[in-house]
Amino acid sequence: MSITIKEIALELGITKQAVQSRMNDIEDFRDKYTTKSGNKLLVNEEGYKLLSNGGNNKRLANLSLGLNSLISEQLNDKKVQINKQNQQINELHKMLDDAHKIHLHLLDENKKLKQQLNQYKHKDEKSEDNNSLYNDDSKKSKPIFSRLFHKE
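^ DUF536 domain-containing protein, sequence as received from the core. Prediction below:
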């Protein structure tokens, strides 16, 4: 059974030119799968199957190429995003390290200030003790009458 190009176009829902384009895309299609009857070109069953699948294969190949390029582009975008995020993470680590150093320095300064404060407290306590001893000594040096009646 043979079928004309016009009938193939009607069955596949494409134009006659699209059928001819598919025929040209398949190597040696006209020699292997067609015969001429008068001025009409007839396609045998094997040729018809190739033509009906051929367009799909070509569309799938084009779709596959499009998807591959889209995926490749998206991968490149993601790589750029990941690199930016890695840079931000590195900067944040550096900031955190700096903050940690500052915190340790402040703790050390605080410790030194507390030690100084404690030293001043001890000096002040000693001077108070000395003053109280001096005051006690001064009471003893007063005459007995003054000490008894608290006259100064």
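The CA atoms of residues 104 and 110 lie 10 Å apart.
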